[in-house]
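Bug: token stream looks shifted between consecutive jobs. Job 1:
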Amino acid sequence: MKNIFLITKREYLTQVKKKSFIILTILAPIIMIAFGAFIAVMLKANETQYTVNVIDKGGLFAGKLRSDDKLKYVYVNPASENQLVNSLKDMEETNGLLILAPLQDNRFDMLEKNSRLLVNDKIGFETKQRIVDDLSEVLRQAKIKHLNINEEEIVQLDKNFELKSSNVNDKSQVDTDLDFGVKYGLGMVLMYAVFMFIIIYGVRVMRSVLEEKNNRVVEILISSVKPFELMMGKILGVTLVALTQFSVWITMAILGALFLNTGFSAMKDNLPSGSEQVVEKVDFAQIAGEVSHILLEMNVPVVIAVFLFFFLFGYIFYSSMYAAIGSAVDNETETQQFTLFAIIPLMVGMYGSITIINNPNGPLGFWLSIIPFTSPVAMVARIPFGVPMWEIALSMFLLIMSTFLMVFIAAKVYRVGILMYGNKATMKELWKWIRN
């Protein structure tokens, strides 16, 4: 244990003292924020105010089409229709001509059929959809007036049927769409966090082993410590490096949210036209309260404990595999034929979890969360929906036993492969090392 601790300490300090680690840890969130700001500036720079002349032959739309900084409506005399149509292609400050037919005998279908939009330049899909939405809203109000019904009755007609479901095994639990959405989102976040952690830092373990093997540093280390101790020290050291990096990023994210709380206003500024009114009607405080209530209704200690367990043991399971791969090859090019054995099971677990969330207790969800190769991602995706304790216990037991077995197998490969040079490893060779 002493040697494992010393190797862990050495690996951790070696990694965190690298300039690349410091730069990446500090600059990565800043680069992501800057990139997002750059994209926002690009989108803003690409915006243009389109000017559309409107010929309202029936007067139904008079004064009801509102202009803004993205679209400007200019009402013109219907008598000048022919002149405007002929001169539209030469107009530089006008982008289109909207000709609206009169409404006769309340034939809204004929009004739509006889109306048209002429343009002298390409306009974006969003702009065209904005015009359609504006016209649809005016026609909607006209139809309401024609049918002699008020707005409240229209709201009642448009209201969706709200179906509440309850669990007969837990009568206090009521499943709503928001409830499902929160659990779905939480499951996806937890699953993706485990998946990315294993992939990113498992590869880092492999590269660290490969680097020391190529530099022949391992020959000195192996004379003082056992191969198993060296391998476990590297895995634990990289684990601490990852936790340090995540801690810094989480801290920076929290501070950024506190001091630069402009995300919501920026979101509203970049919403599609017509969506501002919808945003204003949404009670975000109420939704936030309901989301918090749903999260607190979950068995939070179990969710956290299960996430941390599969987060840690799943990483050790796959990092052992990556360490064995790094010891068995001489360069990164040769790692490609072996890393598929680590990536494919994780991909199966991740994409399988996306489908099982609609049926968390189905046979696919059960087996993906029991098999050790996929359980680190599948179980954390299911846990927000509630998983029977015996399934959690069985999955944990199998993952623990499989982790010990994988560490044992990886140690045997590591012991031989770390000192092998110039001999390209094959599956037959690896099996020979494991068997012996």
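Job 2, same session, no restart:
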Amino acid sequence: MNPLLALQIAEHVRNEIREHPKKWGCLTLFLLFGPAIACVLVGVLIIIVIAGGAEGVDAAPGHVPGIPDVMLSAYQRAAQRITNIRPACAGMRWSVLAGIAEIESRHAGGRNIAPNGDIAPPILGPQLDGSGVGGNRTPIRNPDGSFARAVGPFQFLTTTWASVEQDGNDDGVRNPNNAFDAALGAAAYLCGTGPRDLRDQGQLRAALFRYNASQTYVSQVLANVERYDAVELRPAVAATGDAKAVIEAAMSQLGVPYAWGGGTAAGPSRGIRDGGVADRHGDYNKVGFDCSGLVLFAYAKVGISLPHNSRAQFAAGARVPKEAGLGALRPGDLVFYSPGFIHHVGIYIGEGKMINAPHSGAEVRIDVVNHVDYAGGVRLL
């Protein structure tokens, strides 16, 4: 028996006995005096543990800032299921898949991700017709003669997907624009068909280089993996319904550049000139969000249309007075700043924190709500 599994079983039994001594008294006697019966019971416990583990694969895995919960669930499920598809592959973990998807699509940033993993609109790269778009100078064709293109959150070439396609959500379809299918396909591609241990840095590097033959790319992914390996999974944001949808929409844009005047209901957009600070940071050449643009985008996901102006947004809903303190806020509320006039807005996510596009030169991020200039909140839900 696997030593780790044996320890898990022992811990499970010990906890059950502590909590239900009468219920498990007979079992204890059997374990002590009936070796044959004990073996049967241990076998039953193994089945229970495995069944519980299988259920856990489908459960919400927690939360990592910047990664939509469905995408994180897809990475974790793929890391667990890959041993069934590539039994000679060891060391696959969710952080490796997340490290790739961050570069390839920003975890399907700016897209709607359904609970079953379907991504809309689909993520489609340019046709690789040799025209130079995206650096491509050599035409690559599909078997039917059409030009290949990169698709989905892991940006598989259509020709490559045909060789590694997987059904990661068990719906009978193998779709590179589905988070679960694509993540399991990426895991299969990284593992290859022979023995491989991705816990070994050299083998992991080789697998990533096979995914994209660029040492710069490999180094970027490894940096992401190291950062994600250090992350302690946090419980998902304590919000439900429309508030959860608003927060997840904003979270999906973490890391997107700040751009003065940027942001529409559809996603990040090119910034505009302001004649001052934003111009010095080149915001007019960036695609991203300013603070009210991020709010506009997130609330559009639940059918609420807002003006692209923080002062106008301050007047858009029910007021949560500054004097009531942060304890009066609920996840999804807007929080405003004012040194005399409203000049900034963020989206409250709970525990004294907000997600916002802070200023030129920064990116969309999570910050602590600053009490100094806090001007109160607005509830739209």
